[in-house]
Design brief:
The protein has 188 residues and is an alpha/beta fold. It is built from five helices and 13 strands. The protein folds into two domains: 72 residues, 3-Layer(aba) Sandwich (Rossmann fold), CATH 3.40.50; 93 residues, no CATH class. The structure holds flavin-adenine dinucleotide (FAD).
């Protein structure tokens, strides 16, 4: 098989890696691929990725490196609940990207649906992520990195999967929609 993968976020990159492992020829396309010494590398992934480790299949468990694994998933909805999913791991993105890249033929290029039909491959896999459509709902988050001691002082030392309790200063931010706090130890 010779396939083209459009979009090299986590989904496209892992899919491309699995296809290479099967002996397939894989061309990966993403305009966000970076150039290192003249050759493209996988895009920087800007999000943080957390996973319940026990939910992963065996091949993913041996492939995906974690920078930290918290013992359990704690949630406030607003009542406190501990979710029975086992450890919650934060993906070490840099290490994972290095593991995925060998064998994928990378192209720093945007490819749309009409162009994809001209690539001359056996299959095109669309991993371009969420595409904005009129009226679609969009999730927005921002994150801050805190040294462990600062997190401790702010009462943010315990991993929190979803904390839906109102912020102590919520009344100052009435215009906002529903929101939750997410706290994870990144291990570094
Ligand atoms: C606010 C927010 C918070 C999140 N928090 C978490 C979290 O805490 N933990 C977690 O696990 N997940 C989280 N997610 C979800 C996570 O970011 C997504 O599930 C994940 O990025 C999806 O991966 P993907 O590879 O499908 O798509 P994406 O990461 O969106 O990658 C798509 C890729 O396609 C490329 N592309 C786009 N158009 C083209 C084109 N025409 N041709 C070629 N390439 C193209 C883009 O450059 C991009 O690199 C969050 C998402 C959001 C929006």
């Amino acid at each position: 098989m010779h396939i083209a993968v459009l979009g090299l976020g986590p989904a496209g990159s892992v899919l491309a890696h699995r296809a290479v492992a099967r002996g397939w020829t894989v061309d990966g396309y993403d305009p966000a691929c970076r150039d290192t010494d003249g050759s493209p590398t996988l895009p920087e992934w800007r999000s943080t990725y957390g996973l319940p480790v026990a939910a992963l299949p065996d091949w993913a468990n041996s492939l995906i490196p974690f920078s930290s694994v918290s013992p359990g998933l704690s949630a406030h909805t607003p009542g406190h609940r501990v979710l029975d999913y086992g450890g919650y791991g934060m993906v070490d993105r840099t290490a994972l990207r290095e593991r995925l890249v060998p064998g994928i033929r990378l192209h720093r290029r945007r490819v749309d649906a009409p162009t994809a039909r001209t690539l001359g491959v056996d299959a095109v896999i669309d991993c371009r992520g969420v595409v904005d459509r009129p009226g679609s709902v969009r999730q927005i988050a921002y994150g801050i990195f805190l040294p462990p001691e600062t997190a401790q002082d702010a009462g943010l030392a315990t991993s929190e999967f979803m904390d839906w309790r109102p912020s102590p200063r919520a009344s100052e931010h009435r215009e906002g929609g529903p929101s939750f706090l997410y706290v994870q130890d990144l291990g570094d």
